[in-house]
């Protein structure tokens, strides 16, 4: 079956050439089997598009996930992930019909950047996310925690003293520790407890979500490094609408797994893509693991790609900028 063959090859990508070739095949599959994506492309006057390069592929604005059911093919839906969003804004919904594919994607990514989750004490600080259903971040964290061989790996919410003591015990035993948390929860821990987490991997997943004053990533990392006594802050970059994540181990420079790539679009012309690094503009994402949804998504993030293949997030477009993407479908 072609779908199964594509899925197998997605996680076997070894080179940029492999990635581009499979991207064109995935585009053809999604154009032929995703009604919303096909209608979007046709509305641009690009009916029966046959791109010769991924830079000719139209990217679906992420806002479409708020009001459309984005699915490729007709497999039954297993779970609906929903973005946290902000008050008054319709959340995005990601209809996932193959949770095993999601699990394979995030486990392969974790292993690629950090090794086996079984080797870590994994503590998750994800308040507000664990209080609602349909969080893809909580689903991922739960599965990774479930693979840990450390019995103290868990979600920690209302008992920071217990969390700090658990981590200290692990440090004394020279165990590998990963503390994964949303930004406001890590800031709260840093300011209220100021524990010495020397040697711990502290990973923020973004998200003040109106709980605290917004900080730039560099400001956030500076506070956390000082208060937690760590040299670097790691970051995870993902979205409800994706099935893959990128990771940063320092300086806010993210790297993607082989089946995920960032392309920068012209901030003034959303249909123009930069094929050279170091340009600043809108973040477009190719996530080939998202084969049953849409693999080509134009986000509301502003960023830059570097010569070494890493990328950084510089901020968000305001509503008028984002509307430039929406106008393409009007």
Sum this structure up briefly.
The chain has ten helices and 15 strands. The protein has 330 residues and is of the alpha/beta class.
Structural class by secondary-structure content: alpha/beta
What is the CA-CA span between the terminal residues? 36 Å
Number of helices: 10
State the shape. Answer: globular
Proportion of helical residues: 25-40%
Q: In words, what does this structure look like?
A:
- The chain is of the alpha/beta class.
- The protein folds into two domains: 2-75 and 259-329, Roll (Luciferase, domain 3), CATH 2.30.38.10; 116-237.
- It starts with a helix and ends with a helix.
- The chain has helices at 2-10, 16-33, 35-43, 64-67, 99-114, 136-147, 160-172, 183-192, 217-228, 319-326, and strands spanning 60-61, 79-82, 93-96, 120-125, 154-155, 176-181, 201-204, 234-237, 246-248, 254-255, 260-266, 269-274, 280-287, 296-305, 311-316.
- A hairpin with a 5-residue loop joins β14 (296-305) and β15 (311-316).
Chart the SSEs and their pairings.
Blueprint: H1 2-10, H2 16-33, H3 35-43, E1 60-61, H4 64-67, E2 79-82, E3 93-96, H5 99-114, E4 120-125, H6 136-147, E5 154-155, H7 160-172, E6 176-181, H8 183-192, E7 201-204, H9 217-228, E8 234-237, E9 246-248, E10 254-255, E11 260-266, E12 269-274, E13 280-287, E14 296-305, E15 311-316, H10 319-326
Parallel strand pairs: 1-14, 4-5, 4-6, 6-7, 7-8
Antiparallel strand pairs: 2-3, 8-9, 9-10, 11-12, 11-13, 13-14, 14-15
Helix pairs in contact: 1-2, 2-3, 8-9
